[in-house]
Design goal:
The chain has a 5-stranded parallel beta sheet, sandwiched between helices. A 3-stranded antiparallel beta sheet has the order 3-7-8. It contains 6 helices and 8 strands; from the N terminus they run αβαβαββαβαβαββ. Helix content is 39%, strand content 21%.
Length: 135
């Protein structure tokens, strides 16, 4: 049986959250944030700074579009979606260092991090159920 320290240490090697990803963006860390949802979902809204690469297209497109030496963080819709996990598997098969952003686009947006849609940036709204409300 795996002990708790090994389990949780390993878990954090393979996942991250919206807060840590946003902090890494602000710090200028070199990584690719990849939205793996459909084109319609991307057009409706996505994290600013993300690249759009639907998970079903990763095997065919990733090598040409994302540097293999850059860490990859993938996200899908929400905790109720397994597209991020599917995408992480595809990137791992190709030899990328990849982590999944838990909470997905839902928690990115609900925590008030910058989002845009096909028309440009959207207002930042902080959901008091999941984030500190900032004025």
């Amino acid at each position: 049986m795996t002990d708790a320290l090994t389990y949780f240490t390993t878990k954090l090697q393979h996942e991250t959250d919206a807060s840590d990803v946003f902090d890494a963006q602000r710090a200028g860390d070199d990584f690719a944030l990849v939205d793996v949802r459909s084109s319609d979902a991307w057009t409706q809204g996505h994290a600013i700074g993300a690249i759009h690469l639907p998970y079903r297209e990763i095997a065919a497109r990733a090598a040409a579009e994302i540097d293999r030496d850059v860490d990859v963080v993938v996200y899908c819709w929400s905790p109720g979606c397994n597209g991020g996990t599917r995408a992480a598997i595809e990137f791992a098969k190709l030899g990328y260092r990849v982590r999944e952003m838990i909470g997905g686009y839902e928690y990115w947006a609900r925590e008030g991090y910058p989002v845009a849609n096909a028309h440009g940036p959207l207002p930042r709204i902080y959901d008091p159920l999941v984030a500190l409300v900032r004025s």
